Amino acid sequence: MRKKVLVGLVGLFVLGLLALAWPAGRVAAEADRAPVRMRFNKADPDGDYVWNGRVSGGITGQLETRLLDAQQDGDILYVVFEWDVDSIRPRRSFVATLEGTLNLVTGAVVMDGVVTEGYLLGAQVHEEGQLINAENSRFKGTIEITP
Predict the structure, then answer these.
(1) Strands 50-57, 61-73: parallel, antiparallel or unpaired by DSSP?
(2) What is the superkingdom listed in this entry's lineage (predicted)?
(3) Mean pLDDT in the chain?
(4) For the residues 32-49, what does the mean pLDDT come to?
(5) How many helices (H) does the chain have, and how many strands (E)?
(6) How far apart are CA 32 and CA 61, in angstroms?
(7) Domain assignments of the chain as residue spans, ordered by start
């Protein structure tokens, strides 16, 4: 009889541990799918279509963006950029290709794309920026990666 009680208690203990571990694992999995949000600040003072700056937030590090293509239609510039983020945590570095629009009147930028190399490969990317200083082509904004 004692043996059955002991086996029953061990079984309950194991079930209790599993019940505790399940939500923690679920939370970790949901965190892996949560969007990674960053703020950026970049400038191109040389006018060479390469902007350098920093990202902070979900990923912190150096940023370089390169203009790959641009087509103007009135006050709208359709653009394609490559974003290269060199994170202070190397496993979180990534490259993404984004395309979208720059409103030449308001300075507002909106782009979407995908991570093409590195961290969260294949994830969707959304960027919203604003021209802050036309003299050095300085932009500030946000970038979000959704796994």
Answers:
(1) antiparallel
(2) Bacteria
(3) 87
(4) 96
(5) 1, 8
(6) 20
(7) 1-33, 36-146
